[in-house]
Specification:
By secondary structure, the chain is mainly beta. Helix content is 6%, strand content 55%. A hairpin with a 2-residue loop joins strand 6 and strand 7. It is globular, with a radius of gyration of 18 Å.
């Protein structure tokens, strides 16, 4: 279960933040000591992937290389659409919608490879600081079929997600799986990107915090603490990460997963 949580987190960081690349990219001079993120590399024992970030002012324009990238579209200060392009072909789109408080109210995923569509709806409870996420499926035109097996919930403190829950059947029993997170007091590398903190998608590592994740604590209905993942950082003089390391995330001695951050020269 821990592996599944972590795998989803790592994959979502890659695709929310940058597309993977297999060939060199022309880059401006980079530095470790800056605050506008320009490149992120992910190193595991078996592979290395990374991407370059391109901006239009403080709005993110795209991440990746010339043929494989994610293109960002804004309406005002909010990210409202992403194009996912692989080897020059548009593979999918995601559309994001917000309420009057600029909170994510729903988002839609259109997969042109399969012809399938999904729509996620966010229902906030401001009294207890939670949000229930429901899923509707369908095709590229409509997504109106409720997925009764999909159950997700977010818990907020001061506008930041501090806990996530989901329910699933394990060995014939309905289990509630919980992930609780903690943060440092340093600067998140996405802070300089307009609108990024609003994209609180359940399956990614964007919790809406201006700080960095330092631990995940996993538990389940029939257990207390199942596991804890610890994340270590080194920082530059601006308080932004230079490196981020997940320590032996699969608990099998296979090694750490490391992120390296490079910034635009101030």
């Amino acid at each position: 279960m821990k592996k599944l949580f972590l795998l989803l987190s790592v994959v979502s960081i890659v695709f929310m933040s940058c597309s993977s690349e297999d060939s060199p990219v022309s880059e401006p001079p980079l530095t470790n000591d800056g605050f506008v993120l320009k490149r992120m590399d992910i190193l595991s024992p078996t592979q290395q992937i990374g991407g370059v970030w391109y901006y239009d002012g403080n709005k993110l324009d795209r991440c990746g290389n010339e043929t494989t990238y994610v293109k960002y579209h804004y309406t005002g200060d909010l990210i409202t659409k992403m194009d996912f392009v692989n080897e020059g072909q548009l593979r999918s789109n995601e559309y994001y919608y917000y309420d009057g408080n600029q909170r994510l109210s729903s988002y839609k995923v259109l997969d042109y490879q399969t012809g399938l569509g999904s729509r996620f709806v966010y229902t906030y409870n401001d009294v207890n600081g939670t949000c229930v996420v429901t899923l509707f499926t369908g095709n590229l035109q409509t997504q109106d079929t409720p997925d009764t097996n999909f159950s997700r919930k977010l818990f907020f403190e001061n506008g930041v997600v501090v806990k996530k829950q989901r329910s699933m059947v394990i060995d014939g029993n309905l289990e509630t799986l919980t992930t609780e997170v903690a943060f440092d007091n340093k600067q998140n590398p996405k802070n300089a990107i307009l609108g990024m903190s609003k994209l609180l998608l359940y399956e990614n590592d964007n919790y809406g915090s201006p700080h960095n994740l330092i631990s995940y604590t996993y538990s389940a209905t029939n257990a207390t603490i199942i596991d804890v993942d610890v994340i270590q950082y080194t920082y530059n003089s601006y308080g932004f990460p230079i490196t981020q390391k997940l320590l032996d995330p699969y608990d099998d001695g296979s090694g750490d997963i490391e992120f390296k951050y490079f910034y635009q020269q101030p």
